[in-house]
Amino acid sequence: MRKFLQTFGPVAIASCLVLTGCNGSSTPAPIAQTSNISGDYNGTFHDGIAGTGNATTTLAQHGSNAGGAINAATPGGGITAQISLTIASSNALSGAMVINYPSGTTCTFSTTGTYNNTGTTAIITGSFTPVTGCSGDSGTYTLNQECTDTITSAVRPFSFPAQC
Q: Over the stretch 45-96, which tens digit does the pLDDT of each residue have?
């Protein structure tokens, strides 16, 4: 038995070490992918100063960042809200918004929201609060995705909404 262990013992130990190394948790976790929120949207936009109105936007996306201009027809006049968003793998959205009001006032806001794609509807809902200017103003938006655009980085494909 002693001769057997001297001859095959080192081979058995090396084999165990190699197998243990292969079966360890060295496999990297899959990278969570963000949803494709690029595309055309329509919905509503509510601002504490300008009121509530119909809104349209087209968002462009690169990786986990998206942006565009929300155009809203409100009782206080037409407004344009430039929006920049970061998309988390959980579909939470966060970013910044700049609104140019018809009066000539420009304000900066922080914005948070969510993207929810059920397979039959895809909706962005969000809210915004002032950072500079427009103290006390705030608002919300609900945007229904009509179609998706091609983005410039790999994102898992889904079948809804259709390509623009």
A: 999 989 999 999 999 999 999 999 999 999 989 999 999 999 999 999 999 9
pTM over 0.85: no
For the record, the structure tokens of 120 come out as: 């039959």
What domains lie within the chain, and their CATH numbers?
39-147 (2.40.128.120)
Do residues 37 and 115 make contact, with C-beta atoms less than 8 angstroms apart?
Answer: yes
Amino acid found at 64 = S
- Please report, to the nearest 10 degrees, the dihedral formed by the alpha carbons of residues 121, 122, 128, 132 taken in order: -150
- The structure tokens 């229904």 sit at 144
Q: Which residues of 111-130 are buried (b: 16+ CB within 10 A; e: fewer)?
A: bebebebeeeebbbebebeb
